[in-house]
Design brief:
InterPro entries: CHAT_dom (IPR024983), TPR-like_helical_dom_sf (IPR011990). The chain is an alpha/beta fold. The chain contains 37 helices and 16 strands. Helix content is 63%, strand content 9%.
Length: 860
């Protein structure tokens, strides 16, 4: 039991020798030992076969006390096989014949049975009774404390749970690696549920290593790890963990834990906005729980099904009755982390069915249960409270609950150590942001709407002072170098036709390295610094200095905009978002066609389509604002609008920013900047246009520092960027919409990623990125955005020029040269880019694409 992997061969040999010696007592004991080793590696069917034989031998030969031990072991295996009734029969049969000194083991197994079927109060009482006994076997003491800690955590008693685990871990070290791994996994799970997510992730890594050291399967570890990743909103990674758990338990025939893993798959399908898949997975889990007679677990699966039906718009009164019943069941178990979302879902269903009074009661019950819970449960309670207030038409209460929740979220987000985790965490506040925005828009005050949008806009990156991420450790630096090596191999393969199909292993290795880097950043120290304050309207107007700021928002799939002019602000309703996104997709399709070798007629058709889409986007997004012709604009997009080529929509200088706070900071930085005259020109590899471009720019900047292949390496470019007044990078750009922190600029030794810019804090005063898609930041739930632009502006860069699409290499040189010529005469990047774009011959397809897709960001 202490070290199943090590002693399984010993047990196998003992079975052989006992059979040879025809010793029934020795054979029954050896079979039980071998069965436990099989159980440890999830071979429960084989374990049960061995225990069935051991039970027959013990009974045939009147070995009552051995039979009792065998029955108790078989009860544990039967539970894992989902045979709860059979497990109960085994324990009942063991009761009259168990040895007095083994009675504690029988009590322990009954407690485990209670815990597995959801009778947590009875299980906790039994565990506490056992732990109070003198002379309790050490192994039983460790597992009882471990299991009790899980129940305490589910009831919100996190300090008690961790104290139990401290004692259990100390004792486990004296007993063997299997128990060490068990306690390590539980500590990680409890730490996450206590709200200490980053520490919990680190402990999960340690638990995985402990499981591997003990030779134990990782199925249960995957289930618990999926919970942690769900709380961090790392949905793809959580889905992989949950499906891995399902596969492990299915392969090994362990339906007890398999059903729990299937429930996680259903929950993750909901988070991934796939209610059809969620309904199917929750139905499967509920059927398994029903067969296993596990009522509390079945209730949780049925709750996921009810929420899926609500999302699909098919929830009925029967679903409401079921959700309300499930809520009462879960609340009765004392598990607030499951009861709060249960009452919230029941309240949502009631509201959807028009039963407002019931909805308010259910939502307020959720809010009440959430008080005093860890932050993520409190956030769910704030959502429920705000929804209830909205149904009561109490806008003041809606805002009060939303503000409280968003303040909680801000503290939680600041404690996370990486941009990725902070950006994902903002998704927890997406609904609070929408509820508050609805109140503000109904109120009609443009100033208050802008203030509210700024509370949620790009908050993960912005602190009161620009600060780099904590410096990476040596392992991360080595991994980044390794990543560049893999990129170089992939680039070589792409030019070698004979190696067609060979990149598969290299791509897998690339993903592995990226995950190593990500995990290292998850375990770092939290970033210091308070959140940046919203800029007061008077200060914003003073910084705008005659410009007009337009900040867009989305409320229930409809666009609104706040227009901040020199004298007053206005709120403008623009209509549905979907037609805008349709035009954006059509525009980018046309632009891609214009960069490809095609017949003149096809290029002309693409140009006509692009012109039409630009005109329609202007009609949808700019003309309704009533902005004076020729007014210089500062545009703050939202969500997918960050990818629009905004410069093409307004015939005047225009700059972009992730938020008004971001733009105000860049304006202040531009005002305070003392020029040092340092200009850096960087040529990337394998771009004929870049060579010509840098040569022409060198003539404009004779004192510039110029780096060309093979000297334009990532480390050299990072070193030079930090001290530059103006930097220009002419190189390939690669957008990674799956993980924008690995979007990259291709330099001579491989990719320079957003991740490296974040960790090194390289921030030139002004930067021109003559690279494909370098301006295409990726949006996240909760109005977050991550990419080169947002990362550079957050680190202190005051102005950037970049493109949101693939750009023609050679043709870009004309635009870039004109841009630098205008910069030499003074003025901002926005003004210089506008003048440079005006000089392009838009009848040429390449020039049109560059005219359309390059934009200025920030105020410098």
């Amino acid at each position: 039991m202490a070290d199943p992997r090590r002693f399984r061969p010993v047990a196998t040999e003992l079975v052989r020798r006992a059979r040879q010696a025809a010793d029934p007592a020795a054979l029954a004991l050896a079979l039980r030992a071998l069965a436990w080793a099989e159980r440890a590696r999830l071979a429960d069917t084989e374990a049960k076969r061995l225990l069935d034989e051991a039970a027959r031998i013990a009974r045939r030969h009147g070995l009552d006390q051995i039979a009792a031990d065998v029955l108790m072991s078989r009860a544990a295996v039967n539970q894992e096989l989902g045979r709860i009734t059979a497990a109960r029969r085994d324990l009942d049969a063991a009761g009259p014949i168990v040895a007095p000194d083994r009675a504690a083991e029988l009590a322990f197994q009954r407690a485990v049975l209670h815990q597995n079927i959801g009778r947590l109060v009875a299980a906790a009482a039994a565990y506490r009774g056992l732990l109070a006994r003198a002379g309790l076997p050490e192994r039983t003491r460790v597992i009882a404390a471990n299991n009790l800690s899980m129940i305490d955590a589910q009831h919100g008693r996190y300090a008690d749970a961790l104290r139990l685990l401290d004692d259990a871990a100390r004792r486990a070290r004296e007993l063997g690696p299997a128990l060490v791994a068990l306690v390590a996994g539980t500590r990680a799970w409890v730490t996450v549920h206590a709200g200490r997510l980053v520490e919990g992730l680190r402990l999960f890594d340690e638990a995985a290593a402990a499981h591997e050291a003990a030779g134990l399967p990782l199925g249960e570890h995957y289930v618990e790890y999926a919970d942690a990743l769900m709380d961090l909103r790392l949905i793809p990674e959580a889905s992989v963990a949950a499906r891995s758990a399902v596969e492990v338990f299915r392969h090994n025939g362990v339906p007890l834990m398999g059903a729990e893993a299937q429930l996680r798959v259903a929950q993750l399908a909901l988070l991934g906005d796939d209610p059809d898949a969620a309904e199917a997975a929750s139905d499967a889990a509920a059927r398994d729980f029903a067969r296993q007679r596990r009522g509390a677990w079945r209730a949780r699966a049925e709750l996921v099904r009810a929420e899926a039906r609500l999302r699909l718009g098919v929830a009925t009164a029967a679903d409401l009755r079921a959700a309300a019943r499930i809520s009462r069941t879960l609340a009765g178990l004392g598990t607030r982390s499951t009861a709060v979302p249960a009452y919230t879902i029941a309240g949502r269903i009631a509201a959807a069915l028009g039963r407002t009074r019931d909805a308010v009661a259910l939502l307020e019950r959720a809010a009440g249960l959430a008080r005093g819970s860890p932050v993520l449960v409190r956030l769910r309670g704030d959502v429920a409270a705000a929804m209830a207030a909205g149904l009561r038409h109490d806008d003041g209460a809606v805002l009060r609950h939303c503000r409280r929740g968003l303040a909680d979220l801000a503290r939680h987000r600041t404690a996370l150590p990486s941009v990725e985790l902070r950006a994902h965490a903002s998704g927890h506040g997406a609904e609070l942001g929408q509820l508050g925005l609805g109140v503000m828009v109904r109120g009609g005050s443009a100033t208050r709407v802008l203030d509210w949008m700024e509370r949620t806009r790009a908050a993960a990156l912005l602190t009161a002072e620009p600060t780099p991420e904590p410096a990476p450790d040596a392992a991360v630096g080595d991994a980044l170098d390794e990543l560049r090596g893999v990129a170089a191999e992939l680039a070589q393969l792409s030019t070698d036709r004979a190696a067609a199909g060979a990149p598969g292993p290299l791509l897998a290795r690339q993903r592995t390295i990226e995950n190593r880097i990500r995990r290292a950043t998850w375990h770092g120290d939290a970033r210091s610094g308070a959140a940046a304050a919203v800029v007061p309207p008077a200060r914003l107007r003073e910084l705008l200095a005659g410009r007009v700021l337009v900040e867009y928002g989305v409320l229930h799939d409809r666009l609104v905009a706040v227009v901040v002019g020199p004298r007053r602000s206005r709120l403008v309703a623009l209509g549905p978002l979907a037609p805008v996104l349709d035009q954006v997709r059509a525009l980018f399709f046309a632009l891609r066609r214009m960069t490809q070798p095609m017949p003149e007629s096809s290029l002309a058709a693409a140009r006509l389509s692009a012109d039409l889409r630009v005109s329609r986007l202007t009609d949808l997004l700019i003309r309704p604002l009533g902005v004076p012709a020729g007014a210089e604009l500062v545009v703050v997009p939202v969500g997918h609008l960050h990818g629009i080529p905004w410069s093409a929509l307004h015939d005047a200088p225009l700059s972009l920013a992730p938020s008004a706070r971001f733009w105000a900071r860049t304006r202040e930085a531009a005002r305070a900047h003392v020029p040092r005259g340092a200009t850096v020109l960087v040529e990337g590899p394998d771009l004929p246009g870049a060579t010509a471009e840098v040569r022409r720019l060198r003539a404009l900047h004779p004192d510039a520092t110029v780096v060309t292949p093979p000297g334009s390496t990532a480390q050299e470019v990072l070193r030079l960027l930090g001290g530059a007044d103006l930097a220009h990078l002419a190189c390939h750009g690669r957008l990674r919409s799956d993980n924008p922190l690995f979007s990259s600029l291709v330099l001579s030794d491989g990719p320079l990623t957003v991740q490296e810019l974040e960790t090194r804090g390289a921030a030139p005063h002004r930067l021109v990125l003559a690279s494909c898609q370098s301006g295409a930041d990726v949006s996240y739930a909760g109005d977050e955005v991550v990419g080169f632009i947002s990362s550079l502006l957050a680190r202190g860069t005051a102005g950037v020029v970049a493109s949101v699409a693939a750009v023609p290499d050679v043709a870009a040189a004309d635009l870039m040269t004109a841009l630098h010529e205008r910069l030499a005469t003074g003025g901002t990047l926005a003004r210089a880019l506008y003048d440079a774009r005006a000089g392009l011959d838009r009848t040429a397809p390449d020039a049109y694409v560059n005219w359309c897709t390059f934009s200025a960001y920030g105020a410098a």
